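S.,

Sequence below, as promised.
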Amino acid sequence: MKPKYCLLLFFTLSFACTHTINVKNEKKGKLIATHCLVPGELKKIPIDYETAPQSPYMQMIDDNAGTRLLTCCNPHTHSIDFYDYETGIKIGSTRYEKEGPNGVVNISGYYIQNMDSIFIYNTRMQELVLTDNTGKVKKRISFRGDGRDDWYNYFPQYLFFTVIPIIKIQDKLILTGCQTIGLPAKTIDQHPFAACLDLKTDTINYIYTYPKELYGNEANWEGYWAGFVYPELSPDGEMIHSFPMSHHLYTGPWDSNDFTTVYAGSNKASTMHSIAMDPIRTPGEVVLDRLAREDIYTAIRYDRYRQLYYRIILHGIPGADRSTPRSKKPVSVIIMDRRFNYMGETEIGTGEQWNWNNMFVTREGLNIEYISDDALDEDFMIFQIFKVEKSDDNL
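The prediction came back faster than expected:
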C-alpha cells in the first residue's frame, strides 16, 4: 500500500520503544446526525429441529424465476438450505457428504453463482470446491499458498461470515482472509490477506496487504479480532475494506493495492491504542482487557436500494476486564451516503441481542439477526428490518 501523507492528519503515531500506535478520532463529538435507524418489520422464518438458529453464513440470491432466496449454511445437517425470503418457506436443501469423491469436510463459506455452480470453501482442507445443487463435486482448487509446509505463515487463512463474504467481480472470486500471526513491520508487504481466483483459468493471485500506518511500525494489536478485514464492493466497482481499529475506510480499484482513505467513523468512538508491550510477551489477560474496553469497527454493507452505507461499531465498555464477554459490547450502526458523508448512527443494543455477523440488505431495509430470549421464538430465525428515517431534530 502506497504511503498517504495525508494520513498524518488522522493518525497520531507514537514511536517510543514500545511502538504504541494511537489512532485518534479527529471528528469525535463534531458530527451532525440527520438520520437514524428505526425498527420496522420483524421477519420470522420457521426452522425445524435439524436447523441451526444462527447460521454461520448466509447469501441472498435470486433464482431463475426471480424468487428471492435466503440461503443458509446448516452445520447440523452439513447442508445449504434455501428459503423463500418473502414467505419464509423452506423450498430446498443441498446436503453434502463428508467423505469420498463428493466429500466436503467443512462448509465455512460459499458463493452461489447459479444452481449448477456453487463454490464452497472447505476450511479443513484449505480448498475451494465447485459443486452443483445435488452435492456433486466438479473440481477442487487448493488455497495452500505455494505448497511449502509453513504456508500459513505467509498466506491468508479464511474465516467467512455473512459480513465477510466471498465476492464475485467480473470473472473473478475475491476471498478475504486474515493473517493469524503478528506481522513484522519489515515484511508486512509479504503477507497478503486476500486471494483472487480467476474463474477461467483457476489461477490464484494473492492480493491486498495490511496498511502500514495501522499494522506497521511494530504495532502490537494482539488478538484474533485485529486481523479481520471486512470487505464490500462499491456501486462503482471499487473494493472497500473496514479495519477494526480504523475510523477510516480504505477504498480503491479491486485489482490494485493502491487504496486511499475516507473518514467513516463514529461520533462517539474514542482513540484506539495498540498494546505497549512486546507481542511475544503480551499476557492473554491484557489482550482480553483491551478487547473489552476498546471500540472496534467491523462490517461495512452497501444498500443499493437507498444508496447508503452501514458500518458496525462495537463500543468499548469503560472499566471492563477480561471476564467481560464480547457480547456485552454495545452495537451501533453508522449511516453514510454513497460518498461516505456521515448521516447519523443508532445504538441498537448489545451483541447479546444482535448477531450482527448475519447482516444483509434487501429492498425492505437493513436485516440484522435478532437473538431472542423468548422460548416461543426458538423455532424461528428472526431478522429485524431497520429503516432509515430523518432524526426528530430534522423533521
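DSSP finds two helices and 27 strands in the chain.

Coffee later?
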